[in-house]
Please model this.
Amino acid sequence: MTQWLAQVGEAFRAATLSTFGASGEVIFLIIVAIAVFLMFALYAMSAGLLERKLIGRVHSRIGPMYTGPGGVLQTVADALKLLRKEIIYPVGSDRAVFTLAPVIMFLTAYMSVLFVPLGSFIIIDSQYSLLIVLALLSLSPVAVLVGSWASNSKYSTLGGLRSAAMTMAYEVLLAVAIASIILTTHSFSIIEIVRWQADAGVWLVFVQPFAFALFIIAAVASVERNPMDLTEAESELVSGWKTEYGGAYFSITLLAEYVKLLITVILISSLFFGGWADFAGEIGFAVKVFIFTALMIYIRATAMRLRIDQLLHDLWTRLIPLAFLNFIVTFGVLAALGGA
Amino acid sequence: METPLNMGPQHPSMHGVLHLRTVVDGEIMKSVDPEVGLIHRGLEKLGENRMYFKFTPIANKIDYVAAAAWEHCYISAVEKLMGIQSPPRAQYARMIMLELTRMMSHLFWLGTLVMDLGQPTVFVWGMRERERILDIFEEVMGGRMTFGWMIIGGLRDDITPSQLKRIEEEVTRFEKVLPEYYKLTEENDIFRKRMIGVGVITKEDAIGYGLTGPIARASGVPYDIRKDDPYLFYDKMDFNMITRETGDSYARYEVRRDEILESIKIIRQAIAQIPEGPFRAVNAVTIKPPLALSMRTPVNGESFVRNECPRGEGAIYIISDGSNFPYRLRIRGPSFNNLSIVPKVCADQTIADVVAIIATIDPVFGECDR
Model:
């Protein structure tokens, strides 16, 4: 599969180079970028459809049924509808910044995709891929704050401020949970961590169960889904920071959100569940990604929203100390083992 | 920094057309001022310009979530005024429908509450169960939302044994599915966190602000018209008045949850006890010819009837001057009084809690604004 992808890429590159001469390299990169974009748009659409169907099942409904066979084109229709809509700028909003926010948000999500392994295929292979992905993920709340501020709406501002307050907490949690993994595997590279699990013959979820639990909580917070969707709490803040965004801008934020979901799910399955290196290879990886996407959707279907003070209290006084404790214990155990 | 923030009437969580003028300081709402009256339809005046029986469809629309309750409230007020006694079978049938209405209304409330807490699953489930109750309404009363089933002096159509059987089956089934709801509500940690100790209404406040219904009972005020001033055959039924002492959002949840079970008890007993016989009094006001009968007018006088509607004490006061139309028709809706506690109980709460507290108060604006 990977070899095949690489071969296709090489052949395509050779073809563009021979057709366009010197500018072939640039055209090749642009085409690859568009292909990657389309791939993620496809994931976002299918995840959106899966979400609507699964939540429909939980609600004892059947979900969308009329667009295409069994409703499979529903998200395509939604995307087309959103793209056709007029873009409305709120009165008194800062138009340039208002436009910039979803773009930043999408770009950070898109860039982090480049460093995330899709099976053993990775677009940019870096020794520090895990760190780079975390850094890029933590940029998107900045875009949220920028966009909410530029919207000139009180609901948006409140949503943006909530996002800022939450980011402080869950980024720490995410980083500390990851730190114990880095310590265990001695690596910052996602690929290396997967390889470590294959070599050790054990999934990291069994080595670091607490880190897994903490990571999944932080992950739900970072993709802003129930029970931590406070930034867009519909019943309180209309749509939170998204209130004023419509049409194409809204669809871009939605796309960025699903790309973030994909990255989180890929991180969970490769950091804790052996990635693609054990049984069934890439297909097993795809199955893992599917399972964790479904898990995220089920969490959304059954969890209620926490209040911001409760969430921050739990994060700062319960989970973050727990994460540090886990880190210290890991450190101690490793030191003892290394000393022996 | 304190800043004014308008919530509603076009806000996803506002029940109906409530408009809250609030002052927000960060996440805290410093003051909350509910604005009501956006769907004022002048129902009282409409009633004063109609023959008595013609107001029944409008009475259904006072509280569109629990329409039968108000239909009965109005009809019984007119019956009292005209001195018509509806036969026991009709009264039992009415009681069954009123309790089904209460179940349906509380279910709807539970769904919207959990939706306001950020999760639509219970809402859709509630709709699923409500749908089955609406099917019964359609079969028995001929309508899903508004009925016109009760007439002055009885019922438009009799309730049949097969319908009674179906109601009993549905109620039994309903009792079995209720634990499903508990899993997503009271057994859920987040739900408990969001409800316990939030929005406490003291007993003094509950009495002082004239709160009625489940809200008052959740604050420890033992006040239920079905017990205190029994109408229909509620005095013959064996059921408990549910009260809680704490007065927080969770107590209001518990009261309504248990009231659903009490309603089921009442329905069972009523189905067992319902007598044979006519379902319409001989002097009932029908709209069939001769029309003279439908234009029957009461003598000078007045009547006041209060019922335990799902949201609290609903009352109708009619004064007649002996003409075809009521001289004065006054509607007392519980939602309006219940909302009056909002500025007090919501002040200095977080935005999320204000939304949850208003959801537990369960206002319906058709009845509040009238």
